[in-house]
Write a structure and sequence with these properties.
There is one protein chain. The chain is mainly α and 227 residues long. The chain has one domain (3-87, 130-225): TorD-like (Orthogonal Bundle). Helices cover 72% and strands 0% of the residues. α2 (31-45) runs antiparallel to α3 (47-63) and α3 packs antiparallel against α9 (188-216).
């Protein structure tokens, strides 16, 4: 894969992570525009996820009623009495549906080691799905910068950070989370959001696994930029 093509694909992937994170906030009128952009980015990195995002856009165009989506959002992710699909990693990783458990603190540590911390405006634990998706965007953005500066070792380090974070955190719980959304959601919009999230992350995990096999045969994974 040529360098320009690699960078273009990675940029699309990073933007897809960021825009997907936006879908896990309370829906606003700007969501339509973000979905259009997300559909375009997914076309470049995960056509299966793109089809689900397209269905999300079509549902908003048909109904144009954010109140219905907001109600379903609240049922799934907020409560007040029960969250049907808690958006926190610790609920799935630490057992007994705990919030702010050991895995949450580990995620916060990883953010801080990368020079980040949770904004004071963000009133959720650091292992909220949106925060973890945005962290993947951050890692990919830094990998792209390193590649643009021909800093191959640094780019490889950021790729390894992506692999570790997906394997040990986001990718370790997001599929159970997506299953909960798909089972409990009352709107097709959130069912399709779950499917898009599942397809997108599963495909990238497979891609990272393929890169691991390449490394095992003695070929540095970043060498794809020079093929």
């Amino acid at each position: 894969m040529e360098t320009d093509e690699l960078l273009s694909r990675e940029l699309a992937r990073g933007e897809a992570y960021k825009l997907l994170a936006e879908c896990y906030y309370l829906p606003t009128p700007e969501l339509k525009i973000k979905l259009t952009d997300l559909e375009q980015q997914m076309t470049n990195v995960c056509p299966e996820a793109m089809l689900y995002v397209k269905k999300m856009s079509e549902e908003i165009e048909r109904s144009d009623d954010l109140d219905i989506l907001s109600l379903d959002f609240s049922r799934l992710f907020l409560g007040p009495y029960k969250m049907h699909a808690p958006p926190y990693g610790s609920v799935y990783l630490d057992g007994e549906r705990q919030i702010m458990a050991e895995s949450t603190l580990e995620v916060r540590k990883i953010y801080r080691e990368s020079g980040l911390d949770i904004s004071s405006d963000f009133r959720n634990p650091p292992d909220h799905v949106a925060a973890e998706l945005e962290f993947m965007h951050f890692l990919i953005f830094n990998k792209i910068q390193a590649l643009e500066n021909s800093e191959v070792d640094t780019a490889f380090d950021y790729l390894e950070k992506q692999r570790a974070f997906l394997t040990e955190h986001l990718g370790a719980w997001v599929f159970d989370f997506a299953d909960s959304i798909e089972e409990k959601a009352e709107t097709d919009f959130y069912k399709n959001l779950a499917r898009a999230t599942r397809a997108f992350i599963a495909e990238y995990l497979d891609e990272l696994s393929d890169l691991s096999e390449t490394e095992a045969h003695g070929h540095p994974c970043m060498s794809v930029a020079n093929e």
